[in-house]
Structure formats: C-alpha cells, structure tokens
C-alpha cells in the first residue's frame, strides 16, 4: 500500500527529501515534525480499512493525533510555519468530517483533498527548515531551541 502507484512514490520521495532536510538543517521543532510526519505516513496505511468505501475512521484518528501534536508544538514554540502546518492539517480533518456528514461526497475528491493538504503541510515544514537555517544563532543556550 505504501508504493502501489506513482502518486504514492512521488509523495515518498518528496517526504524523504523534505524530512531529511528538516532533520539535517532544521531546529528541534522541525526535526520533531519531520519524525511525526514520517510516523503518520507509516501508520496511515495500517489504519486504512479496505472494506470501507467512505470515511476512514482509522486514518481520521492518525490525522487527529498528528493535528494534536502540531497544535502542541505551535503553542509551545514560536515557529510561525507551525500555525500554517496545523491549519492545513485541520483542513484535512475537515475533509474527513465532510465525508462523514455527507456520505454523497465521492471517494476520489475526498482522497485528493487529503493529498493536497498533506503536500501543503510538507511545504510548510520545508519553509520552516529553510527559515531556521537562514536565521543567525541568537543564543548559545541549548534549551532556547524549543522556545524559538
């Protein structure tokens, strides 16, 4: 399920490149989101129910946990990009809710909506890692990293 079709392969390459850059060049929040994003990618197919055509409750659960983590980081750090990442993840949750409220929502737009929000979260992470690398070091205090 991870690499079955070309869009999944493209996502994997993009995710590895951005997450690798965030782990290599980002600060602590960027690194944590990179790990959480890879974990969500890994858990999503395990939570996917092939017998269900509509709303995927397991995928919604994984997405909700990822949203909670993004919100936690957004409230405990001063990284602006985290607000965008959390907002895009919230839009993903709302896509799930739309499918739940109106079962007439076709499966393809539902899935593509989730893909679009996922790429925007990945773009937010890339911007966050890039901005962090370009900022001059402000302090030598290692505990200050989680506050920035």
Give structural notes.
With about 150 residues, the protein is an all-alpha fold. The protein is built from five helices and no strands. It has helices at about 5-25, 30-45, 55-75, 80-100, 105-135. Helix 1 (about 5-25) runs parallel beside helix 5 (about 105-135) and helix 3 (about 55-75) packs antiparallel against helix 4 (about 80-100). The longest helix has 28 residues, at about 105-135.
Short description:
The protein is mainly α and about 150 residues long. It has helices at about 5-25, 30-45, 55-75, 80-100, 105-135.
Draw up the topology in text.
Layout: H1 6-25, H2 28-47, H3 57-76, H4 80-101, H5 107-134
Helix pairs in contact: 1-2, 1-5, 2-3, 2-5, 3-4, 4-5
Helical content (DSSP H or I, runs of 4+) = over 70%
Report on the biggest sheet. Answer: none
Radius of gyration: 16 Å
Q: How many distinct beta strands?
A: 0
Q: Output the number of helix runs.
A: 5
Tell me the fraction of residues in β-strands, as a range: under 5%
Mean pLDDT: 87
Low-confidence stretches: none
- N-C termini distance: 37 Å
What oligomeric state is this? single chain
The geometry reads as globular
List keywords for this structure.
mainly alpha, 148 residues
């Amino acid at each position: 399920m991870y690499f079955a079709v070309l869009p999944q392969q493209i996502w994997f390459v993009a995710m590895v490149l951005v997450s690798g850059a965030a782990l290599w060049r980002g600060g602590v929040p960027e690194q944590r989101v990179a790990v959480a994003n890879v974990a969500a990618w890994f858990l999503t197919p395990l939570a996917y129910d092939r017998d269900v055509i509509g709303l995927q409750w397991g995928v919604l659960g994984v997405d909700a946990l990822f949203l909670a983590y993004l919100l936690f980081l957004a409230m405990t750090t001063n990284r602006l990009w985290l607000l965008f990442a959390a907002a895009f993840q919230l839009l993903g949750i709302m896509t799930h809710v739309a499918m739940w409220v109106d079962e007439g929502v076709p499966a393809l737009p539902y899935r593509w909506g989730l893909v679009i929000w996922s790429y925007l979260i990945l773009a937010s992470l890339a911007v966050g890692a890039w901005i962090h690398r370009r900022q001059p070091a402000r302090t030598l205090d290692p505990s200050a990293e989680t506050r920035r």
